[in-house]
Amino acid sequence: MATITPIHQAHPAPDAANSQMAPQKSPQRPRDPRLDFYRGIAMFIILIAHVPNNRWTGWIPARFGFSDATEIFVFCSGMASAIAFGGSFARKGWWLGTARVAFRCWQVFWAHIGLFFFIAMSLAAIDVYGGFEKSYIASLNLAPFFNDPAPQLVGLFTLTYVPNYFDILPMYLVVLALMPVMMGLEKISLWAVAAFSVLVWLVANPYLIGLGPNGLSLPAEPWSEREWFFNPFGWQLLFFTGFAFMKGWLPKPPVSAALIVLAAAFLILSMPFGSWKVFNWVKAANEDLAALIRPTWDWTAQWREKTDFGLLRYMHFLALAYLGWVIAGEGGKNLMARGQSVGAKVWSFFLGIITKVGQQSLAVFVFSMALARLIGFALDQTDRAITTVAFANLVGFVLIIGCAYGAAWFKSQPWRQKK
Fold first, then answer.
1. Is 314 contained in some domain?
2. Within-domain flag for 412
3. pTM for this one?
4. How far apart are CA 112 and CA 165, in angstroms?
5. Which end of the chain is more exposed for a tag (fewer CB within 10 A), N or C?
6. 356 close to 401: Cβ distance less than 8 angstroms
């Protein structure tokens, strides 16, 4: 699914004529189209998944296997972090690399806070001024915040109050904060990096080593024992797998017919074991086979758990990622349009859009999470017919595309560019 070319900096030796000149900048490493393409795809799926009662959610990856778009987002974020931050550690050393990670954590933290207050305000405005029978505040279980805001404000800013729906960015923040630890362990050995990541994941998944009911986790509500829906200590394994591939700590997998068949077989055969949709298809076709499969859902519940990132989710995503990487081709060559045919031009157009969305994933993600609730509210005022839902989703796509291009424009700081 993504590149595994190691990060490196070119250091050409200056010739005699240029030896007294100012040192030249290393050539900028081009972005790998595979990373942005697959991350862009994940952004569209995430929007669909978060629109309440959306018909289209019946056809997202989560309905056909153990893993879903969250895995794509986290894995690709790890790869992007290797590019964005791994080079800083290599060029500027551990302290300045850590400072850059801390600055990114600061940005993600305030994105989380801003997202929460915007959505809370939007739902409050609908409840106060809309006069609807349904409580939209209650739809996200935000009543405790509005009923007793003082302690929840403290919890919100200390990340001890993390309501469902607002849990991805806190997970990402904590995983980012682990990066300096990994870069410090790299100086010892790559085996130390791998051992630490696997050990933390094992402790977060207590069913594997028999440590208590919840293992290493973080509290999500002061009044209950609910943990963060996305346990960062479990999900860091996937993040740093993507990081390791992009950083060159892990070698690229071989393109092998045997591996392709094995990965595809695992994805297909595991469907009824991880998807109620596919299981019901099997049950309709052969009830005896379904009766054999059904007990495994109880046996594998923890192995496919989303909160702690169960082992089956990891295996499923790696198989999917391998096929995505093979399909894209070396350097993403298979994604590139060839020729001047109408089909090639159309594909090039859509590829550019998807890639742009992937490049601006944080801005798009925050925007889409807020947008999804507003789309859901709009759909509540309709009969949710097939055409209406399709129109709402497509409008959402257009808006997140606009967000991506707008974010890119602001980041380019055109007001500072010389004419």
1. no
2. no
3. 0.88
4. 11
5. C
6. yes
